[in-house]
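Notes from hallway chat w/ T.B., transcribed later so I don't forget. T.B. wanted the structure written out for a chain they're using in a teaching module, and asked if we could keep both sequence and structure tokens in one place. Agreed to drop them here.
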Amino acid sequence: MSRRVTVYSTPTRDVCAALGSEVARVRRERRWSQTELAERVGVALGTIRAVEKGAPSVTFGVAVEAATVLGIDLLGGPAAAATRAADNRRTLALLPQRVRAQAVDDDF
């Protein structure tokens, strides 16, 4: 059985790299080792190394948790993120639950 390889877009790789470098910067400013951050996040040292390298294969939750443990604001901080999530839930409640693929007429 062959292993599935995911190809990430340039914007995705750029965001992962930006978050990773921010995690590394703040960790160093706090004078924490990668091992200390890994223990606080509850992951292996290699995972923190991958976060800091900007590896897009790291789970989103782990990368966000590392940022949160370091006090890095994402999406404008916890209050703004909660407000945005609540707004999105209200909007989603108004949209159809299921979306069917539609044929696109692109014969111009």
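Follow-up for T.B.: Residues 26 and 106 are 48 Å apart (CA to CA). Might be a good example for the class.
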